[in-house]
Amino acid sequence: MSKKTNLIMVSAVVATSVLLSGCGMFGGEKTAEIDPPKDVTYVKDEKALETEGKVAKEGSNQKKEAAKSKAENKTEVYLIDKNGYVVPQTLTMPNEKGVAKQSLEYLIEGGEVSNLLPDGFRAVLPADTRVLGTKLEKDGTMIADFSPEFANYKKEDELRILQAITWTLTQFDGVEKVKLRINGYDKDTMPVNNTPISEGLSRADGINFDNSGVVNITQTKPATVYYLAQNGKHTYYVPVTKRIKVNESDMYTAIVNELVEGPSASSGLVTDFNPDAQLVSKPKYADGELTLTFNENIFGNLKGSKVSQQVLDSLVLSLTEQTGVESVAIKVDGKKTLTNEEGKKLTEPVSRPKNVNTKSF
């Protein structure tokens, strides 16, 4: 499953549900008879009418749900949490033309996002900023043009702004890179802290950088892993780009080890992995599917053969950031069948969820 979302506003699935709803209603109608058979009593007719009314009502409800689905869409926008991390949050927005432009408008302080912000989060773009337009070039570059108010941000927010814009726009199919304009003019550097942007930005540039413990950056490679953060009783996933010392052929193992080891103690983030969990064999990749085989410590404190949903999500989100990985299959040495926390058997590889952090706080 792709980690991006189609720019097409009307989903084929939604359209199909509408057609099916229509078929259900029309298919249930019968041609009225002028002279009904004598053995049909009024009581039977009343029951038939009740049934037909129920079918009509159900069909009407289906139409309403389909219409509601058409009128709304769920889109990831990247906001700043209380710890200063740039974090994806899935919001329900009106289904309008120009979903890329709309998603950027939900990044503006005091704008459309104001009534939807989860507790502890804030918008990333300065108040009164206007999105003048977005344009997708043939090479996969999305150009985003902002009004001059875009430059009214604090120095410490510059990288956060770049990351939020880049990761929000690259969720859409066909968008590989992002370039910024201010009032119609291309920019070589950002207006406050002069971060270079002339070449454009992509997810490969990273997010929420953690270079702790790195001595020689030339001997490392960047990888984005997903840790957990807590906000009251709720948890959410935070992408963090780390420099990992690893051979190119063993990046998958290195990412798993980073998740098990967990974030630095000062990060404010946590991991749900048992510290003794480890792979018992090298990950196997074929046709977009990555297979991981763990020891039994992957179960943590759960009974039987259950794997924590947060462990599953962290693995799938982190590994599908790697080029070509579409799904992850989890196995445990000596166990035939695994289940998630709800008891559902994990007989198929797990694909990346369409949206991240969908629960409201």
Q: Which secondary structure elements does this structure contain, and how are they paired or packed?
A:
Layout: H1 12-27, H2 42-71, E1 72-80, E2 86-94, H3 99-105, E3 131-136, E4 141-146, H4 158-169, E5 177-182, E6 185-186, E7 209-210, E8 221-231, E9 234-244, H5 251-261, E10 284-286, E11 289-294, E12 306-307, H6 309-319, E13 327-332, E14 339-340, E15 350-351
Parallel strand pairs: 4-5, 7-9, 11-13, 12-14
Antiparallel strand pairs: 1-2, 3-4, 5-6, 8-9, 10-11, 13-15
Helix pairs in contact: 1-2, 5-6
Report on the structure:
The structure is a single chain. The chain is α/β, with parallel strands linked by helices. The protein has six helices and 15 strands. The protein folds into two domains: 73-205, no CATH class; 209-351, no CATH class. It has a four-stranded mixed sheet with strand order 3-4-5-6. Helix 1 packs antiparallel against helix 2 and helix 5 runs antiparallel to helix 6 (309-319). Residues 1-26 form the signal peptide. It comes from Priestia veravalensis.
Task: Summarize this entry quickly.
By secondary structure, this protein is α/β, with parallel strands linked by helices. The protein contains 6 helices and 15 strands. The strands form 5 sheets. It has a 4-stranded mixed beta sheet with strand order 3-4-5-6. The chain has a 4-stranded mixed beta sheet with strand order 10-11-13-15, covered by helices on one side. The chain has a 3-stranded mixed beta sheet with strand order 7-9-8.
